[in-house]
TrEMBL record:
This is 17beta-estradiol 17-dehydrogenase. GO terms for molecular function: estradiol 17-beta-dehydrogenase [NAD(P)+] activity. Keywords: Lipid biosynthesis, Lipid metabolism, NADP, Oxidoreductase, Steroid biosynthesis. It is an enzyme of class 1 (oxidoreductase).
Amino acid sequence: MGMCWDALSALGALTAMWLLLRAVWGTGCAVYVYLLPSVRRDARWLRAHGAWAVVTGATDGIGKAYAQELAKRGLNIVLISRNLHKLEQEAKEIERLHGVLTRVMQTDFTGGLEIYGAIEEGLKGLEIGVLVNNVGMVYSKTLGKLLDLENPAKSLSDTVNCNMMSVVQMTRIILPQMVSRRRGLILNLSSVAGNQPHPLFAVYAATKAFVRNFSLAVAAEYFSEGVTVQTVSPCLVSTNINNHPKTGLLVKSPKDWAEQAVNTLGLSSHISGCLSHHVQEGALDAAALPPTSFLS
């Protein structure tokens, strides 16, 4: 009996030590990535990857904030979205505020493979250093079963095309030139919602899990060829996709969130985007709570 208790005590001590080391490592990583200005890459480092950044879903929310933040750091911006009026307004605003060049491409990412030929043609000749795969959609802003959707066949197809195919095809188009130059940054927007299955919001969460797994795999494949692929899994950012909740300690505005997220480039391959979201994601993982209300 004494030997059994000794074994259990040793196991408990090892478990406690493992949890302590994990907590120390996580805290150290958070301090390094989010709190040490001295380790952040400067604008020259960012521009050295290429003169242009391409941002999908660039006229609202996180995509718009990324475009503004990258332009502020001296990159020319290709804005891709479906609303031409918003695209033209945003392009003019970026040029006025930051003095960089812009291009706009009107694209509806709910389309299939046929939409990508025009994108590929429009990007020819540009030295693209940063790709932000941000575009995404929800098929419903309320929870519900899969077959409760209005016109489920189209709704589900649109969601898969927009949230998943766009990431794969945009990567396929831009990755070759990054590999040939042996430098480039690809940012793929996942979500904390993709960390586990979400009944009543099944497809959105599944598409974000796909983005995370695809992104991590491609990062491993092309790291040795000079291309950095960053997986971005925010918690709640106040955007149109989640009806603009009030910002505060837990909920970030796109502008504040993107500024912190861009500061992490070159420091971490998988981020929450800001310190607040890093802490929230760690707490959710530790408690194994399903974050069904977090849409990013």
